[in-house]
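User: Teach me something about this protein's shape.
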Amino acid sequence: MAAEKRYDAVIIGGGHNGLVTAAYLARAGKRVLVLERRHLVGGSAVTEEIVPGFKFSALSYVVSLLRPEIIRDLELPRHGLELLPLESTMTPMPNGDYLVRWADHDLTRRELYRHSPRDAEAYDDFGKLMFHLAFAMKSILGIVPPNPTSLNPKDLLSLLKLGKHYLGLPAEQFYALCKLMTMSAADFLDEWFETEPLKATMSASGVIGTFLGVRSPGTAYVLLHHYMGEIDGVFRAWGFARGGTGAVSESIAAAAREFGVEVRTEATVAQVLAKNNRAVGVALDDGEEIHARVVVSGVDPKLTFLKMVDPQHLPTDFLHAIRRFKIRGSSGKVNLALGELPNFTCLPGVGPHLRGAISISPSLEYMERAYDDAKYGNFSRRPYMDIIIPSMIDPGMAPPGKHVMSIFVQWAPFELNGGWNDEQREAFGNAVVDTLAEFAPNLKNAIIHRHVVTPWDMQEEYGLTQGNIFHGELSLHQLFFMRPVHRWADYRTPLKHLYQCGSGTHPGGGITGASGRLAALNILKDW
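Assistant: First, the predicted structure itself:
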């Protein structure tokens, strides 16, 4: 009988963070196995050919926060990663006008001046302030959160350094950071601008990954979190991966395999095996047991600790904290295969505006009313949408002359009145298409196929508890040393040799890889 294969580490979930952890561990000479329940790796960052010839970034669709050190360390461009910048953001307006912010600063200033000379002047000052604040906050993305209640000298030294860093900010920046930590995105932007579509489009970054509205306190900081976008060292840049977001995951997987990582798909982990209060491996849903020196979970905290770990191995207060962890899904996704490009009334024809993002966010009132629907258990009848047409950037995403459209939709509650079913999914898709068709009347006739993903689908198909795309809300009480719970924000867990590396840990969601990298560094330190 063949001897049992033993691994140094087994990773639960082949999302991009799990793959990053695996790659770093294998790079250090460890024997690593990744287990993914679906037929392909990537988690939320996948490219799927749902309709023959049409390739969709099924969930995650833009790339920005992917850490430059990961790109370098894993040599991702050599493994096929190519990031293409998004050049603009267009916001159509109900009166037939539009607002476009371009990558070209002078064009953006001219466009803003057309709407408001005051806003054109303020935009530069706002941009400089947010750049400095984002740069100041960026430092925490690359560190393991210290425990502020610990007497460990390393934690105390880390806290002291952070305190000196922020107290050393110029007064204007320090007070602005205090405002960002407490204000709503809408109120913060109201202090700077008067143009409604500008404020509404910018405020959207404050609610993605939360079940909050643009006027909810705390959303100003989430706006700053998304302001930290960068592409391989180019700050404040957002882009698209050639081949879709699945290409990001595939490049990381290729690097991991080159280091010796074994990847198994269609392998569902049912339980974390423990002995003497130590994780010793995992059991699959078919009964197979796989043993390893450490187990690393790349799935969300609720799925990890409430479903996969026997509660006898976890402290009661820790379990209570995990149950209180906010993970309410609030978004959906609609992917369209199109026979022709959408023709926007405000800016007809084919042009550079179709190679960037398109934001359906005409006013702050529109945004808050869209949230009101979800607040009372319904999906937004006129939702906020963030749209890109990947085939305009990467023609290989669709057959010649055809296109794919990616529509991120906010708000769609997991806890929908009456529950999600096929009828509600269709109604949700109709609300999205009907709203967008008000701005691009030819859209309905252009649709060849429609792929609608609800929060329920995200949970059942992609393993995201309650359909939360970030493995937990990005609210202030769930960030840094509070993510996912206090005293356990360093990727370790109360069960020895069990670690976390997913987006439910610091620094949170987005295609960053930061959680995976920091988890791997801590595991290697413990080794």
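Now, about its shape. The chain has 18 helices and 20 strands. Residues 296 and 499 are 5 Å apart (CA to CA). If you'd like, I can walk through any region in more detail.
User: That's plenty for now, thanks!
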